[in-house]
Amino acid sequence: RQISDLLHEMPTITAPEVARLGLIAALHRAIDNELAHAFDAVTWHVSPDAETHVETIPTLTAEVIFYAAREAVRNAAKYGRGEEDFCLQIQINWQDGLEIIIEDNGIGLGTAAPNSGSGHGLALHSTMMAVIGGELSINSLPGQYTRVILSLAMKSNQ
What we know:
This protein has helices spanning 2-9, 14-21, 23-35, 48-53, 59-79, 120-131, and strands at 41-46, 87-94, 97-104, 134-141, 145-153. The protein has 158 residues and is α+β, with helices and mostly antiparallel strands. A hairpin with a 2-residue loop joins strand 2 and strand 3 (97-104). It starts with a helix and ends in a 5-residue tail after the last strand.
């Protein structure tokens, strides 16, 4: 039921954006337009291999990755700010598949205000990533950072 609700909440306008612009450009646009204001700085590092190979990912798979990445950034924007300058770093790499690392230097998991979120968003996106053969992992150190890694292994002939 929760996955169904999540799919229904996805705006229909974004799917064509991913298909039209590609995963990286659509993610860049979404963060710049919706979420960049929440951070003091946003830094992107995209490897040339990722730029080239990400186009081989099927559109529906790219959409799942897009929504998972956007949810990670939304969570950082909503819950991560502490007392220091709040920075977001996005790394997109390709080595035997796609790896997107979304890291902030905020308060970390477990230090957000009680009842600040349901905690189901990233869990649902983790399930969706598993459905497409990918993985969503989270690493956090309270008071220092939160890192979300989205990965999708791809065979060399894909």
